[in-house]
Amino acid sequence: MAIDTLNMHELARRVSSVSHALAEQQTRFLADLISIRSYTGEERPAVDRTLEELRRIGCEEVWMDSAGNALGRIGHGSRVILYDAHLDTNQVADASEWPSPPLQPTIDPARNAMHGLGASDCKGGVAAIVYGAAILKALELSGDFTLLVMGATLEEDAEGFALRSLVERDGVRPDAVLLAEATDLSLRRGQRGRCEVRVRTRGQAAHASQPQMGENAILKMLPVVSALEAMNASLPAHPLFGRGNQVVTMIEGPHTPNSVPSWCEVTVDRRMVPGETMQTVLEGIRRAVEPLDAAAAVPDQPVLTHTGLRLDGPSYYPGWLLEEDHPLIQAGQAACGALFGERPALGVWRFSTDGTYSAGAAGIPTLGFGPEEEQYVHTAQDQVNLEKLRKAAEFYALFPLLYQP
Question: pTM of the full predicted structure?
Answer without folding.
Answer: 0.93
